Amino acid sequence: MRLFLLASLGFAAAKNGLDGWLRYAPLPCSHQCHSKLPSNIVTLNQTTRSPVYVAGSELQKGLKEIYASHVQIHHGQHGQCKDFSAVIVGTVAQYRKTCGPADEVPHLDEDGFWLNTKGSHVRILGQNEKGTLYGTYEYLSMLAQGNFSDVAYSTNPSALIRWVNQWDNMDGSIERGYGGPSIFFRGEKIVDDLARVIQYARLLASVRINAVVVNNVNANATLLAPENIQCLGRIADVFRPYGVQIGISLNFASPKTFGGLNIFDPLDTTVIKWWSNITNQIYQRVPDMAGYLIKADSEGQPGPQTYNRTLADAANLFAKAVKPYGGIVMYRSFVYDHNLNQSNWKADRANAAVDFFKHLDGKFNDNVVVQIKYGPIDFQVREPASPLFANLLNTSMAIELQVTQEYLGQQSHLVYLAPLWRDILDFDMRVDHKPSSVRDIVTAKRFNRKLGGSAAVVNVGTNTTWLGSHLAMSNLYAYGRLAWNPTDDPEDMLRDWIRLTFDLDRNLLDTITRMSMDSRPAYENYSGNLGIQTLTDILYTHYGPNPASQDNNGWGQWTRADRTTIGMDRTVKNGTDFSGQYPPEVAAMYESNETTPENLLLWFHHVDYTHRLHSGKTVIQHFYDAHYQGAETAQGFLDQWESLQGKIDHERYEHIRQRLEYQAGHSIVWRDTINNFYHNLSGIADKAKRVGNHPWRIDTGWPFRDCFWLCGYCHRSNDTAGTATTKLHFPSGMYDLAVNYYDLYGGQSRWAVYLNDRQIGRWLGNTEDILSHTPSIYLDGHSTTRIKFRRIKGTKGDTLRIDGTPDGVEPAPLDYVALLPHGVVD
Ligand code: GCU
To answer: Which residues of the chain have pLDDT under 70?
Structure first.
């Protein structure tokens, strides 16, 4: 094996993120790597819109950028197969036809490929054209990472459903999207310029995603208008050469709300006919449409329950319509009652999926796949795997993941998700006392079902970073890799992604790897641990902290926290019976708080705050400590990133630095909000005396409190600036000055800070434009933002002044300031 590990090229050219991990950065190539430069590219299909043709063009582009050399493409004739040191790309069948026997190629499953770089030729042969394109991206990925080893291997997908979902609305907005407006829709129509769609297709194909549902699960029926169906065809035409099919989400009530019928009963013949007509029209324009995605009877969406029909009746209605075209129906199991009564101790939203679906097992047509969110509630930082995976033995299933970080920092926080997904995929349900990992269940290896796989809600937008943050793209990359091979190692995938996205520099690689691998544990620590869920504001933006919002409403994301106890009792013996939904071995584990893994303790058990964990700590002390630890880790991300200055182009370096600085501040907001909440509720002191005790802050009284009121409520846009002053009472020395302020949506206030009338900093309240999360219109945990001015020399008795100038509805509000000696986080 020859592996040339190349030194980094040093300073990578500025990049805006559009190419994602397909940058093909030039390699500082020695003559050894040049010896691996192919002389020609031979593609075995000359139809320009075929994936094999695209593979040829992609190779040419990649080689040109990596090697700075132009390599000719030939479109397959026999003689060229013998061309010395060519790369030959095509399907196994095309190769046999044009080039001769392919006896060395092992058996390939649908979409699989064989890559052979040994000998004089490179051969990339797919079972089908899609597979050939996947193999081409694999080869380019090796080269771009400076890996010129001689390899010969085949790889096959774990499952045929490797989909992404976009929650794009026809008006161009994206539900839970943080990367700007839709690349597909604007003003209730499909956009004319589909250039971004081509680039999305490239990214998806390169990680072997084979279908994209283009519109929101909360679907708008107008997508079915004839002109929109025609335009859907344009989108499908763009994706097709990349081997990506399109699918669409449907609104269940469309026959009535859009089609002019007075009914949408799935068993009514006029309704059946209506859907069949619409389906025929769509397939006329998009003959290879992957299928439909259905959210029904959920969160106010219409569904079959209106007519006392079952969910299977609904799914099968669509399944029959798409069957003649080979389409499938992804029917979401996210069905629950969002008006639950918390005074009923037995009520539990987590029970809903099994309650709604288990009795229907075996009643779904064979082209229906039940799409199941990974956990029983809703994309939380930690949930047990949904028990529904172990309850549908005769129904095809797919797991639903979320690349868009709805509850997990909305791309303004770094949270690398592959470890979370692997926790779920690896979980062993022990069905019939046999190994039954979720990954084997959803890929249909365990239980013999026809279809299976995964879908991830991605929600890229028109932002050049796609997701709103460069670092968040590791999640899309890792999702594709796991959809293909759910045993891929999160750290290995990450390292590949970093080399492809940034550079081969060893120190850069280790640093971004460490930060990313630490990011989910950190986020869990400061946002909600021991299985209590992400303690965000579930009634508003799902972004910042608001533990009070979990309880006393019908949504069922309860914690049941009171003055002495916390946690949902989901046991059979005394609780909601949820643990009983798992197969016996797993149910027994969760039934007892002794055997429940502690990171899920409060998911399954209602305990005293003084309950002792295995560590000997009480639950409440664990909360306090974990929140401090999580926020401290997040402070470290910024330092680690700053150690990379000069190794990354300025544009991306700054973009990420800004976000990590913001995250460092916001993790403190999370830490304090949650710790203060439980401290106030329980009255139990923090043994380390940190909670409620902030020696380096100025916030508890006049004058900043006064300013808070003044700026927060008195000023309007035309008012003059508000001013707050205080005299420093800290010992003289060098400090970092942290200012916590509220950055609201609807205005860009200006602040300036002075020490003894000398301006030491100023800033604008514009995070709504430069960061990626949903902005807030209130003074709350979402809008609280911290800015830091470093190395300020302060003398006891100095005057610190902050002037705030309101703008729009934003009244230049301040929260507090802190003067931080070196190394102190307060
Ligand atoms: C969450 C999310 C909604 C979304 C829903 C779904 O509740 O907040 O925006 O519509 O999930 O998955 O259908």
So the answer is: 1-14, 30-32, 78, 699-721
Cβ atoms of 148 and 32 closer than 8 Å: yes
Assigned CATH topology for domain 547-568+606-682: Alpha-d-glucuronidase, C-terminal Domain (3.90.1330)
Predicted pLDDT of residue 563? 98
The pLDDT tens digits of the residues spanning 207-217 come to 999 999 999 99
Q: What is the pLDDT of residue 765?
A: 96
Distance (Å) from CA 600 to ligand 1 centroid: 23
CB 22 within 8 A of CB 500: yes
pLDDT in tens, 66-102: 998 899 999 877 677 877 789 999 999 999 999 999 9
Q: Cite the DSSP H helix spans in 535-618.
A: 584-591, 601-604
How far is residue 200's CA from residue 291's CA, in Å, rounded to a whole number? 20
For tokens 């107008």, what's the residue?
Answer: 222
Q: At what angle do helices 51-67 and 129-144 cross, to 10 degrees?
A: 10
Of 104, 227, 299, 769, catalytic? 299
Instruction: Tell me if 540 CB under 6 Å of ligand 1.
Output: no
* Among the listed residues 585, 584, 581, 554, the one whose alpha carbon sits nearest the alpha carbon of residue 570: 581
36 pocket-lining for ligand 1 (C-beta < 6 Å): no
Distance 461 CA to ligand 1 centre (A): 18
C-alpha span between 251 and 312 (Å, rounded): 16
Q: Round to whole Å and give the CA distance between 350 and 299.
A: 15
CA distance linking residue 670 with residue 522, whole number of Å: 11
CATH 2.60.120.260 fits 697-820, yes or no: yes
- Which one of 65, 168, 265, 378 is the catalytic residue? 378
Contact 89, 43 (CB under 8 A): yes
For residues 576 and 351, the answer to whether their CB atoms sit within 8 Å is yes
Query: Is 383 assigned a catalytic role?
Result: no
What's at 298, amino acid-wise? S
pLDDT for residue 32: 65
Residue 299 annotated in active site: yes
Domain ranges of the chain: 20-155, 161-501, 547-568+606-682, 697-820
Calculate ∠ Cα 198-203-208, nearest 5°.
115
Residue 218 CA, closest ligand 1 atom number = 10
Q: Do domains 20-155 and 547-568+606-682 have the same CATH topology?
A: no
3-state secondary structure of 763: strand
| pLDDT per position as a tens digit, 413-441 | 999 999 999 999 999 999 999 999 999 99
Closest CA to 81 of 121, 117, 51: 121
632 lines ligand 1 (CB under 6 A): no
Annotated active-site residue 768? The verdict is no
Quote the CA–CA distance of 534 and 441 in Å, as a whole number.
Answer: 27
Which pLDDT does position 30 carry in this prediction? 64
- pLDDT score of 14: 53
